[in-house]
Amino acid sequence: MSALESRTQFYTLPYPLILESGEQLSDVQVAYRTWGRLDGNGGNAVVVCHALTGTPNVEEWWGPLLGSGLALDPDRDFIISSNILGSCYGTTGPADSRSPFPRITIRDMVALQRALLPHLGVKRIRLAIGGSLGGMQALEWGLMAPDLVEAIAPIATSAQHNAWQIAISESQRSAIFADPAWRDGNYEAGQPPRDGLAVARMIAMISYRSHSSFTSRFGRAERDGGFHVEEWLRRHGQKLVARFDARSYVALTRAMDTHDVGRGRGGTEAALRSIVQPALIVSVNSDVLYPPIEQEELAALIPRARFEVLASENGHDAFLIDMEELNQIVTDFRARVERESCQTKGTQRCA
Amino acid sequence: MSALESRTQFYTLPYPLILESGEQLSDVQVAYRTWGRLDGNGGNAVVVCHALTGTPNVEEWWGPLLGSGLALDPDRDFIISSNILGSCYGTTGPADSRSPFPRITIRDMVALQRALLPHLGVKRIRLAIGGSLGGMQALEWGLMAPDLVEAIAPIATSAQHNAWQIAISESQRSAIFADPAWRDGNYEAGQPPRDGLAVARMIAMISYRSHSSFTSRFGRAERDGGFHVEEWLRRHGQKLVARFDARSYVALTRAMDTHDVGRGRGGTEAALRSIVQPALIVSVNSDVLYPPIEQEELAALIPRARFEVLASENGHDAFLIDMEELNQIVTDFRARVERESCQTKGTQRCA
Prior knowledge:
By secondary structure, chain A is of the alpha/beta class. Chain A has helices at 58-62, 106-120, 133-144, 163-177, 194-208, 211-217, 228-243, 246-257, 268-273, 292-301, 318-321, 323-345; strands at residues 9-12, 17-18, 24-25, 29-35, 45-49, 78-82, 125-131, 152-155, 222-223, 226-227, 279-284, 305-310.
């Protein structure tokens, strides 16, 4: 098996997961993948956090960052990515059963990822990295596990979901709720609210791109008697319907809306100032959904932040499109963190 | 009756309206309002063009621009605003009957407004002004009636609907189509696709505002067990359902998607360069829906353009919110046009 082959594995927590709300979830299963080998000290882990409809298969969505000599390097790192709590790719979520699934938060997602570590023998995390919802998890990793996590890389994300992102979420959920097939989440497996979820995805896809990228790519070009961009949008709607569960979509967008690093930590500023790790903050200059002002706030308040702009017309999705540039940014950050750590500790020869 | 009181009047075209598509519409009715008095030469008309879900009642939506000493001055101007073709406030549109309503364009809207002028005795239009869809009409007024229109003021609009705006339109139409009550447009008066239209309006309201305005106004404030912005969005959805027809919404957003000043005129650049009138181009710096690059294009190519930025965090809707500033911008433009016209013609004493 080559370094880049990986298969999904499953782990069931032997104890109930206690949620931020106080509720308990029993028999929680986590689907995860790993790349590379854990070193003898359990100290070379890298945690990759996926976005809203993402999967633990990092090869599929972040291939240009994963591989020998790349930002996430299986020759050096033990890379772990797990399907998040509430999703529908093997980890426990509302798609599993008809019983009401509890409200969950970003912190619950991170708590579950953390609960997987002893099973894998991981003692230290060199880096927690992710974009969008993955970036929210990276921030919470930094805050929830200061002694465990050595660096974080939150990309195209924010310290809290603001009204703008909440509104965009709510319009998507409303599209799902407006579909009679939704039945308050109690639909049969074969009769999901397809139309509603498709509309939700269409709204989302617009927010993930930009005026400029749509102009470059589609302009007013026509296809099949309509505009090309219309066909593209509808196709993306249908693609998501074929691969994602509407209950998970609602649960995860609600979890995103709970995102607020300041909750219970004395507010946003105090929370960000308390982050101890070196933090790579990446902003996409054309991001409509999480505009640069959000990452500027992160960079201004996190003491050891390094701020990088991914210059792209691709909007929010640039972190999944402009991957060679992102690979370079992350690689440079990791090299810098290593140099600084080496100089501080004096435990290895410094380059 | 004071200068600012106005009532809706109706006019039925005595001949069929020939659409851009070649189709003919018979017995077309126009609902309109006027303010001020037409002068003896029929030369003091000002045409105010409303936006997507707007009405001819300019007092309701542009009050701070309409009045003695203001940008639209009934003491000086004969102000006309008519409900656009395809709408549902008294002008012929798809809400009137179940027979299929033909596809219409911005030019058809302007053609209908123009057909009203002889009935009113209007010979010259001092200014054609409007924001968003109203601005598209203002541009077409300039192009379709170069000998009739003396100045145009397209605000927060574009030379053509680009993929970005088309995508946002299509996501809204898809929300309507996903509602089983839509029935391909053949719903009974009492059973419209309420949920679909509400979701469409929610999507639209987000695009009309900005990240910054939502942060200032709502942040993460809660209300009734949810976020305030969610309640605000849903309320706007319900308000539109109570006052607007889904068939009109579909017809008008499709008409907006046809917007392309270059069609049949040798392309966008040639069309814009052919505009003869002084043109006030107003851009809102925070406009997500019609971003400033669109108005910069208008200003760069229209020979007699004057470019003004409405500095606001309110996004696209700033033209309906920051009205005192807009009134000043339009007032200044009109004074300038008058000075230049006077200097050219030498027909009056120049200030």
